[in-house]
Amino acid sequence: MRILIGIIALFTFRASLWRTPVLSALSRSVGSEIHKAPADVRVWFNVGVDPHLSKIEVFDASGKQVDKKDTHLDGKSTRLLVVSLPALPPGTYKVHWEAVSADTHRTQNDFKFVLKP
Questions:
Q1: pTM of the full predicted structure?
Q2: How far apart are CA 109 and CA 63, in angstroms?
Q3: DSSP character for 88?
Q4: What's 102's DSSP letter?
Q5: Full domain range(s) for residue 46
Q6: What's the domain count of the chain?
């Protein structure tokens, strides 16, 4: 009986991990030095995310938010979150993202990229 309970607990735990939004890909500017300002930042997840509870924010080196505050899903996928950017001057930028799946599992992280002249 204890083995059966352990197996059920293991499968329940593994199933809950699959519902948590996990970052699966990022736009190419992530963690790199680029010479052309991106028009947006795109973050892909392993599951669909709720656009009303999820967000992407981009900050300059002084901590000022510089994105257009229009985080939205890509029109073709609930797994792709996008935020638009204005024309950015050279500098170091920090991207912070938070994602909430349909069943309210939440995850967040951040990364940087450098825009060279």
A1: 0.77
A2: 16
A3: P
A4: T
A5: 2-115
A6: 1
The position carrying tokens 């963690």 is 31
- DSSP states of 19-82 as a string? HS--EEEE-TTTTSEESS--SEEEEEESS-B-TTT-EEEEE-TTS-B-S-S--EE-TT-TTEEE
Instruction: Record the tokens describing residue 72, joined without a space.
Output: 């939205």
Q: Which CATH number belongs to the domain containing residue 105 in this structure?
A: 2.60.40.1220
Q: What is the pLDDT of residues 4-57, one digit of tens each?
A: 333 333 333 444 444 566 655 556 556 788 899 999 998 888 889 999 999 999
Return d(Cα 79, Cα 13) in angstroms, integer: 22
Phi first, then psi, for residue 25 (nearest 5°) are -165, 160
- Write the single-letter amino acid at 7: I
Alpha carbon distance 93, 22 (integer Å)? 22
